[in-house]
Amino acid sequence: MLEARDVRKSYGGVKAVDGLSFVAKPGEIFGLIGPNGAGKSTTIRMAMNIIAPDSGAMTIGGKPFNEDDKARIGYLPEERGLYRKARVEEILLYLAALKGMKEAEARRRIQAWLNRFDLQDWRGRKIEELSKGMAQKVQFIGTVLHEPELYLFDEPFAGLDPISQDLLLSAMVELKEGGATVLFSTHVMEHAERICDRILLVNRGRAVVQGGLAEVKASHGRNAVQVEFDGDASFIEGLPFVTSLTSYPRWFEVELRDGADPDELFRALAGRLKVRRFETVAPSLHKIFIHLVGEDNEGRAE
């Protein structure tokens, strides 16, 4: 279990983390989500004792971090750092040895993970010969090889294609189902929505909303509709009963004003769009994110 209690960290006059408190529990995936620059990586680095908080406390299993905890943690940093001249199997064996694994067991687990990620034919190749996505999967393998109790993944999906993203998402779910504590940071709400049990949305170092995913979505209303369609949907935003619109080329999500009936929207679409899916839903995490922090971050660099 990882716990943060009123953790604060400043750099000069900038508050990177401003009073965060949360608990990531065994057997769950906890999402630390928010825009770039929100303080997610700083929080994870404090959990790893790479940097110390100015005040507050980070504890693992109820105790402050110590060197012996390193064998209990798998940490995938945002900044990737594999030795480019090393070969894939060589670097994975080295990382396993750092965690105290015996070579025979390490080789067995490495083979299984390379097969799972379709990297078995690359085991003898140098890291510099791999694509960015391949190298990312190798670093993920190095993070999980020793099967720790706590996993800290900082933006683990960066540089991965959709198929590779699904492989990692599936692997993370299996880790939590095995009883581990899994915390990962992301600014991509779709990833968090797919696998998180609980989330903490942070912005400018402060907590915005926290809780179970279903609880968070329910607390932000249910009068939303998702529509997949063909045609020109430019008229949707001008409908009097639509209060907000998130639009993509082939689908959109609208929030209806209080008291509006989704049937009213359906009637407005009839004859103007070819509707392939029409579904009343709780607002997506992306929609909640935009509503809660979008305006506050307008114009900020990603």
Give a short overview:
By secondary structure, the chain is an alpha/beta fold. Helices cover 31% and strands 30% of the residues.
Q: What is the averaged pLDDT score?
A: 90
Radius of gyration (Å): 22 Å
Which superfamily, in CATH terms, is the homologous superfamily of the largest domain? P-loop containing nucleotide triphosphate hydrolases
Overall outline: globular
| CATH class assignment of the largest domain | Alpha Beta
Report low-confidence residues grouped into runs of 5 or more: none
Major β-sheet profile: 6 strands, mixed
What is the strand content?
Answer: 25-35%
CATH architecture of the largest domain: 3-Layer(aba) Sandwich
- Element string (H = helix, E = strand): EEEHEEEHHHEHEHEEHEEEHEH
Counting DSSP E segments of at least 2 residues, the number of strands comes to: 14
* CATH-derived topology of the largest domain: Rossmann fold
Q: What is the SS-derived class?
A: alpha/beta
User: How many distinct helices?
Assistant: 9
Distance between the termini: 31 Å
Helicity range of the residues? Answer: 25-40%
Strand order, sheet with most strands: 6-7-8-3-9-10
Strand-helix topology:
Layout: E1 2-11, E2 14-24, E3 28-33, H1 40-47, E4 55-60, E5 63-64, E6 73-76, H2 88-98, H3 103-116, H4 132-144, E7 150-154, H5 162-177, E8 181-186, H6 189-195, E9 198-203, E10 206-212, H7 213-219, E11 224-230, E12 242-247, E13 251-256, H8 262-269, E14 274-281, H9 285-294
Parallel strand pairs: 3-8, 3-9, 6-7, 7-8
Antiparallel strand pairs: 1-2, 1-4, 4-5, 9-10, 11-13, 11-14, 12-13
